[in-house]
Amino acid sequence: MHGFQRLHMVNEIQGTDGAGKAARRLRKRGGRFGCFAAVLMLTGILAGCGSAEKLTADPGAENGGALAETGTAAEAEQGNETEPAVVTFSDRISRTGDLILVSADHEYDFEANADLELVNIKETQTYDYPVDKDEFMLARKAMSSLDAMIRDCDEAMGSSLTSVSSAWRSKEYQQSVWDEYEELYGEEYVTKYVAVPGCSEHHTGLALDLGITYEDGSAGTFSESENAVWMAQNAYRYGFVRRYAEDKTAITGISNEAWHFRYVGQPHATYMTQHNECLEEYLEDLRGHTSPSEPLETEAAGHAYKVFYTSEETIEEPDGEWTVSGDNAGGFIVTVLAD
Ligand SMILES: [Zn+2]
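That is the input. Now the predicted structure with zinc ion docked in place:
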């Protein structure tokens, strides 16, 4: 699992102009550094050929698929003790990742996310819950967490009624949803409940709507179900958050939606749920933690994590395992496994 994530991370950074610069800087240092740069180049190539794909199958509810094992800091520092290792993030990285904010003010960048890996839910699910449409897709990284979340919810409820009523949406699909609901319910309703095409979280592949589907195929009302209560309380354990709560409508700009969940990864979902912060508030909170030595601290599945925000494209590389996500507002959130 970590093996893949390292490849993925290297590929992310390697595949950008900024990363190119970083790699060149690394090569200049020679010696072990030169070897490391070569490894970095090589793994970048491997990651691009699809060998990594198989290994992503289970990013795991275990750690929320959160961390990359870079293993680079130790090697890099040995290469030159006077100059700390650095890592450079590209502008593209600021628009991708588990923590990107997609809202009316923060349009989703389809181009930056062109390599988003989607899987067909029905073809991939490891637990047999109803999926409203055969073509529904979700980001591969969130898939096993979704399976585990629905399975555990059903088990807790003693029934198997939880279904998926919406998942990834292309810009065109979101436009069709907008048009359909406008025709059915009028302009006021769509403005309140449907995101403008390009501004829907569903574009990320990390968001989905849950439903209730009875055995005869008829639909129930998720927001009035016990399942909704269970999900709101437990989704964080699988890296998901209930995204649009009643008490956050002034911040999110979206009405209360008991059915809409967003994958952000376990350490982040845990903090957001414990502190009753929606994604907008969490990102704001993180912007107050710009120093790796004064991070926001959270935990998930028995591990401690340190999280900090930076608007700098080049930072000193964190020690140990870490990942980076953009905020879709020009910044970077770095998550470091602390133990
Ligand atoms: Zn939704």
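Residues 245 and 256 are 5 Å apart (CA to CA).
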